[in-house]
Design brief:
It is a single chain. This protein is of the alpha+beta class and 433 residues long. Helices cover 38% and strands 20% of the residues. It is globular. The protein starts with 9 loop residues before the first helix and ends with a helix.
Length: 433
């Protein structure tokens, strides 16, 4: 048993969490049942029938556990274990229930399952918290679908960027507001400024998530304790415009969009290497890179190339510097190659800073439960960043995952998951006694 007076029941709580293995397995099985993709993995697009069905099933299971289930104007789901004082700022945990196309079964969803397992363990022990404890099933975190980050969480916080409700799904053209309405939400209320809660109504936001590194797997550790979430700037619809020409056109007369774009890719990769050498963590991803299939040909100098760019860093000053350097690289290529970059709309997400007190509490509990762990910065974006940006004390736990995320082979084990959930549940019980 823990010797820390703030967390006296760690071993007992960990045992209660371990007893909830059948519940965890049931919830993970429901995800596969409701969203298996015949081409591999799972697919739960935001505001799709698959995502909605998972929210419904999780809500039904939560009600069977004695939790109160509600949904907000964004169609986010809240599953609440009532505390002694419902007027007190609540503890909120959770993550997203959508996925990328043909993704894995744990990304995002593990955080919602962890919250429900924590509720079941607390009920099993007869522990009633001083405040409400709510598990949030978040909608539409995966920005690959609508090109907007943290849709469900920022909608709940009233921080959706202007124009977000008019965003169109990249594959189907579905307008976000129509998707929200079809899922039972109220986009008109969101557009009018309706929030689910003010930041001061939340004691904290906690998110358990599989790692994406996979650093924990490399180091043989089941749990990582989050130190921060990178912010980003993104060009979701950028293009390079040159001139189409015949394959016989001499080099000095060409304005080749592909060559110019390729030079940009190499320059950004070199910038990343330079920053890594200097000990300044960042990441750069060009996820789409394509010429126009209506106009390109093997014997034609390409006059247009479309691309996307995602640049992220953990320090707001670093992010601003990276954006300035990116624009410098672009201007130099434009002059040198005789092309024009049209960057389109720039999307942004703030750096997510973790609450030191919660992080330290997680570390204390993990050590006293003899759960091997390490501090780890998230290389990816998470809903926690939206809560941190709104001023809510926020913390994350990462679970070892052997094969990366966003693929059918995500490698989290239930044993590791239960250890991470035990840390979170012990902190909740000790903090809201």
């Amino acid at each position: 048993m823990s010797t820390n007076p703030a967390f006296p029941d760690g071993a007992r709580i960990a045992e209660a969490v371990a007893r909830q293995r059948p519940l965890a397995e049931k919830l993970f099985a429901a995800l596969i049942e409701l969203s298996h993709d015949p081409e591999g993995g799972v697919t739960r697009a935001p505001y799709s029938p698959e995502e909605t069905n998972v929210h419904k099933r999780f809500g039904e299971i939560a009600e069977s556990l004695g939790l109160n289930v509600t949904r907000d104007a964004m169609a986010n789901t809240y599953m609440t274990l009532p505390g002694r004082d419902p007027s007190a700022p609540k503890i909120l945990t959770g993550s997203h229930l959508d996925s990328v196309k043909q993704g894995g079964n744990f990304d995002g969803a593990a955080g919602v399952v962890a919250g429900l397992v924590a509720c079941a363990a607390l009920k099993d022990l007869g522990i009633q918290l001083s405040c409400d404890f709510s598990v949030m099933g978040v909608r539409a975190e995966e920005s690959a679908w609508f090109g907007v980050s943290y849709i469900g969480s920022r909608g709940a916080l009233g921080t959706l960027p202007d124009g977000a409700l008019d965003a169109k799904r990249v594959d189907s053209g579905l307008v976000l507001s129509d998707g929200i309405r079809a899922a039972g939400g109220d986009p008109d209320a969101v557009a009018a400024g309706k929030k689910t809660f003010e930041p001061e109504e939340l004691r904290c936001f906690l998110e358990l998530h599989i790692e994406q590194g996979p650093l924990l797997d490399r180091d043989g550790l089941p749990v990582g304790i989050g130190t921060g979430i990178p912010g980003n700037f993104r060009f979701p619809d950028a293009r390079v415009l040159g001139e189409y020409g015949h394959v016989g056109l001499l080099k000095d007369w060409r304005h080749d969009a592909v060559t110019a774009a390729s030079e940009f890719v190499i320059a950004m990769d070199a910038l990343w290497a330079e920053w890594e050498k200097a000990g300044k963590p960042m990441a750069c991803t060009i996820g789409q890179f394509t010429t126009d299939p209506e106009l390109h040909a093997m014997t034609k100098v390409p006059g247009e190339l479309r691309f996307t760019l995602d640049v992220r860093a953990y320090d707001p000053a670093h992010l601003a510097e990276l954006e300035a350097k990116t624009l410098e690289i672009i201007r130099a290529i434009e002059v040198r190659r005789g092309v024009r970059f049209e960057l389109g709309h720039t999307a942004r997400a703030a750096v997510g800073e973790m609450a030191p007190a919660i992080r330290d509490g997680f570390e204390t509990i993990a050590n006293e439960l003899a759960i091997p762990n390490r501090l780890i910065g998230s290389p990816a974006s998470h809903d926690s960043a939206a809560f941190a940006a709104a001023g809510v004390p926020t913390a994350m736990l990462f679970i070892r995952n052997a094969n990366g995320s966003h693929n059918p082979d995500e490698g989290m084990t239930i044993d590791d998951f239960l250890q991470g959930t035990a840390i979170m549940t012990t902190w909740i019980a000790g903090t809201a006694q």
